[in-house]
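sorry for the late reply, my laptop died twice this morning and i had to redo everyting from scratch. anyway the thing you sent over, i finally got around to it. pasting the sequence first so we're on the same page, its 520 residues, then the predicted structure underneath. double check i copied it right bc i was rushing
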Amino acid sequence: MQQVPVRPVATASVLGLVLLLAVWAGSVAAQQSEAAVSIAHGILAYDDKRYAEARVLFEMALKQDPENVEALYYLGLVHLAQQQPALAVEKLERARAKAPQDLLIRFQLGVAYFTLEQYNKAEPLLAGVFAERPKLEGLGYYVGFMRYRRKDYQGALEAFRTGASTDPTIQQLSRFYAGLALGILGLPEQAVVEVEEALKILPSSALTGPAERVRDSVISARGREQRLRAEIRLGGFYDDNVPVNPKPSTDPNAESLRNRKSHSPGELASVRLDYSWLRSGPWEATATYSFFQVVNNNLNFFNIQDHLGGLTGFYRGVVANRPFQLGAQYTYDYLTLHNAPFLDRHAVAVFGTLVENPGNLTTLLGRWQAKNFLQDASTTPTDNRDALNWMVGPIHVFRFAGDRHLLRLGYQFDREDARGSNFSYTGHRLLTGGLYTLPWGETRLRYDYEAHFRSYDNPNTLPPTVKRIDTEQFHYVRLEQPLPNSLTLSLEYQGTRIHSNIAVFAFDRNTYSLILTWTY
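ok and here's the structure:
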């Protein structure tokens, strides 16, 4: 086989290229090695707080290796220590571009933006780090302060209590702002405890004076907090079906009731008084009395008067940084129809409310009622409406814009055990509704909708003698405008639609009201 000769020129070119690469690689390695030495000496100077010397060493390292992430990071720390956050941002942004997942780079960059009060840039960085390492030195304070600043008081409290720091100043600030958050969340006793703990950490710091004033103002405000609350409502209305005449049907019993006069204008008045007779730490107890009067100008027989008295007790606290309230209530009301006794009722309710976060609140309610219809002695035993009623169910509220807008969803199960076989049922109630605050003049628009599905236990004695099945729909619309001197003017609509497989019980009713309310 003939050997192909190698040209000397080609061989020399290859050897030259290899030699050039080797020299370049050696130069780069030498520069990187020199940069590593400068960084090591710079870290020692930084730890000893010789920041000017550290800065020179890190800048030298960057001249030797301009892309060195460690040198960029530590130079950013030096700028922060020298109160130069803008320069720190420049170096730390370059470091983050080369190592976007590095947690410490993101943390220190967030601190730099926080120092510059550029919270819109600082919060995403620090919140991301907080989700990964909430115990990182001082991080809880930074995140908590920014949440407090944008009125996320519950989230702020969580950050302050989750975070950790060995710096007494950070510890004191975290306690102080946690106290402010608790006060705004309606927990003044716990707010005072937090502020007093803040005072113990650094008794002679610059924060001592403001902290003492906050503590004293919370204590005095709690003492001055109004114990007596009152509400008076006066208004007029128009009701298109006062006696609840049935809807048109082919049922002769229902049709015989449709001849009754049904339309009437009228007036209404109510008074409600609440007095907090016990306030001790997280405990509060309130006594309530209310009076309600409806006058139908054209149908006086249906005039209603109701008196209600009650006692309510509350316990407020925080669990897992989430405010909660537990309570129980007893009420008794006595209702007359055309000045004659009609109904008295005892009710006991227990409830618990948990504020999951600034946008969500859930209440679980359980209630027992004993109803005594005072005119049922003249009815047949099957039509006796005296009953015991049990109800339980949750309600969830979605909160927006600091409670200026609300959305409510709920479900309740109830069971009515009546003495008369015609009125015992099992029910399911769906609830929804919302509140929207209009952008002008604090005008509020509220809408509530309820659908109550009732399945009765026994065949009704009225024809066609089948088990009664009702669906009751309730619509409530309220447009209210706050006025000076604690007054509110509201336009209200209440609509009831009952569909039943027994025609006598099916009806529609609409009431329109204009009401002026004064609160104290």
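The CA atoms of residues 354 and 469 lie 35 Å apart.
thats about all i looked at so far, will dig more tmrw
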